[in-house]
Write a structure and sequence with these properties.
Elements: E1 2-7, E2 18-23, E3 27-28, H1 30-38, H2 42-48, E4 59-63, E5 72-79, H3 86-103, E6 107-110, H4 122-137, E7 155-160, H5 166-191, H6 199-213, E8 216-220, H7 222-228, H8 231-237, E9 245-252, E10 261-265, E11 267-271, H9 291-305, E12 311-321, E13 332-335, E14 341-344, H10 351-362, E15 369-374, H11 378-384, E16 389-393, H12 396-409, E17 413-415, E18 433-434, H13 442-451, E19 459-463, E20 469-470, E21 476-477, H14 482-492
Parallel strand pairs: 1-7, 2-5, 2-6, 6-7, 10-12, 10-15, 11-12, 14-18, 15-19, 16-17
Antiparallel strand pairs: 2-3, 4-5, 8-9, 9-12, 13-14, 16-19, 20-21
Helix pairs in contact: 3-4, 4-5, 5-9, 6-9, 8-10, 9-14, 10-13, 12-14
The protein binds ligand BES, manganese (II) ion and zinc ion (ZN).
């Protein structure tokens, strides 16, 4: 879908469909008023018949509205004017795009982008509209023998209230496109099944991205990983016939001496649990256990597209976690790259075992900050549901920076404590630490484990177990936390 910025009244807009909002109790938005006036009260009279009352997300398509230049008008319910905030704005755009796509119009102009949204400017509104529109029409049908019919909606214009907003709108549009493209990449990788999206496939995709977007890509094979002493990472890979890979992607947009931001993504392409086997129900969802890797890779694409003047490094340890004669066994003790030994009390707590070695590897970049992204704990889904990503950090400024970026991107996080008191739960009688801390505070003890490998730099951990995908009838990857990561890096690049 192509996007553009428009200005000018809706009644004069030559388009297949003008999309205007109606608040609760049939209160017309400014754009709806303009159409109503030009058409001699046509909208008011339609609404009087009760076809649309303004409930948020309701839509009504009108043909042949008199005295206007557009072929159709799509009315979209906005709910109560006093309660029209960021969530309501996004819901209205989503409903509009879904309805538009049913009309058969190849092109439309959205006037919802003119509506005032508390605390947000034109750049934000346009960015969000582009991201939500692309998200609403996303589907993953490449593995069906017959692809679904092509989407009719090809071009979408975003109207802004005045010329003064155009610059901000254009900036929002370039961000929105970069974020939407990156989310699509993350979703495609996440939705791809484990038999196709293997560690080798991820490495191949990273190499391709390097070529298309001018990123430096290096893939370390098993022998090189052994040489580095990543005994913890390799212990997880042992149970699989797919060779592990350690992928390094670099964007060199800053000065040579600028310390890079390092992103680390968990790349378990399938998590059966290993010898501590997971139950069969919904185990298919563990193909999403590489969503951290996917979002980090996708973020690199956006960073390159936006040409951010920053140095950014992505580190992706990737392998499968399967039961096998050669797999990790409960009680096994492995030696991490840092030299610290780990008693593997549960082979299903494998994410931290591959991340810890990547965190140690990150030291060589002398990073300005390290952010790891992982579908790490079921406990995080219980704590925060599917709304907020779990955030834990060893540095408060970094935590706040991420929280602000999440607000700006509408891809929010919620911080949990990382007090030393939790470290006691990781005590092992036989090694430096155990890889699990019991049932209480499962998300925090997982982060507490990782923190032992992140002592040399400012570090934050994002647990995306609840936010990276949806289960149930709308099962699928969400592309989160790509918007958050892109905004975090935009902030680091000076806005
Ligand atoms: N990949 C899972 C976490 C997960 C579970 C993500 C459910 C999304 C939905 C992770 O590797 C895992 O199995 N974690 C265990 C840790 C436990 C053994 C300490 C968990 O959360 O049950
Ligand atoms: Mn697991
Ligand atoms: Zn896992």
């Amino acid at each position: 879908m192509e996007f553009s910025i428009k200005v000018g009244g809706p009644e004069k807009q030559k388009t297949a469909c003008a999309v205007v909002g109606v608040f609760d109790a049939r209160k017309l938005s400014d754009a709806a008023k303009a159409i109503d006036q030009a058409s001699g009260g046509h909208l008011a009279s339609v609404l009087k018949h009760g076809d649309l009352d303004g409930k948020l997300g309701a839509t009504l398509l009108l043909h042949k509205v008199p005295n206007v230049a557009c072929e159709r008008v799509l009315l979209v319910g906005l709910g109560k004017a006093a309660e029209f905030h960021d969530k309501q704005y996004r819901d209205a755009v989503r409903a509009a795009v879904k309805a538009l796509n049913e009309t058969g119009a190849a092109e439309a102009v959205l006037y919802l982008t003119e509506l005032p949204v508390k605390r947000h400017d034109a750049a934000w509104k346009v960015e969000q509209a582009a991201v939500v529109a692309r998200d609403a029409l996303y589907r993953f049908d490449q593995l069906k023998s017959k692809q679904d019919a092509a989407r009719p909606l090809k071009r979408l214009g975003f109207n802004l209230a005045g010329r003064g907003d155009v610059r901000a709108g254009e900036q929002g549009l370039s961000r929105g496109k970069a974020v939407a493209d990156a989310m699509q990449l993350a979703k495609d990788l996440g939705n791809m099944p484990g038999n196709l999206c293997t560690p080798s496939h991820l490495a191949e995709r990273a190499r391709k991205l390097g070529k298309s977007h001018g990123l430096a890509v290096e893939v370390l094979e098993q022998a090189a990983i052994e040489k580095l002493g990543m005994g913890s990472f390799l212990s997880v890979a042992k149970g699989s016939r797919q060779p592990p890979k350690f992928i390094i992607v670099q964007h060199k947009g800053g000065n040579k001496k600028d310390k890079p931001v390092v992103l680390v993504g968990k790349g378990i392409t399938f998590d059966a649990g290993g010898i501590s086997l997971k139950p069969a129900g919904e185990m298919d969802e563990m193909k999403y256990d590489m969503s951290g890797a996917a979002s980090v890779l996708a973020t690199m694409q956006a960073v390159a597209e936006l040409k951010l003047p920053l140095n950014v490094v992505a580190l992706i340890p990737t392998c499968e976690n399967l039961p096998d004669g050669a797999a990790n066994k409960p009680g096994d003790i492995v030696t991490s790259m840092s030299g610290q030994t780990i008693e593997v009390l549960n082979t299903d707590a494998e994410g931290r075992l591959i991340l810890c070695d990547a965190l140690t590897y990150a030291e060589r970049f002398e990073p300005a900050a390290v952010v790891d992204v992982a579908t790490l704990t079921g406990a995080c889904v219980i704590a925060l549901g599917h709304v907020a990503t779990g955030l834990l950090a060893n540095n408060d400024a970094l935590a706040h920076e991420l929280a602000r970026a999440g607000e700006a991107a509408y891809d929010r996080v919620w911080q949990m404590p990382l007090w030393d008191d939790y470290q006691e739960q990781l005590k092992s009688n036989f090694a430096d630490m155990a890889n699990i801390g019991g049932r209480p505070a499962g998300t925090i003890t997982a982060a507490a484990f990782l923190s032992r490998f992140a002592e040399k730099y400012h570090w934050a951990h994002l647990d995306i177990a609840g936010t990276a995908w949806r289960s149930g009838k709308d099962k699928g990857s969400t592309g989160r936390p790509v918007p958050l990561l892109v905004h975090f890096l935009l902030g680091r690049a000076g806005g």
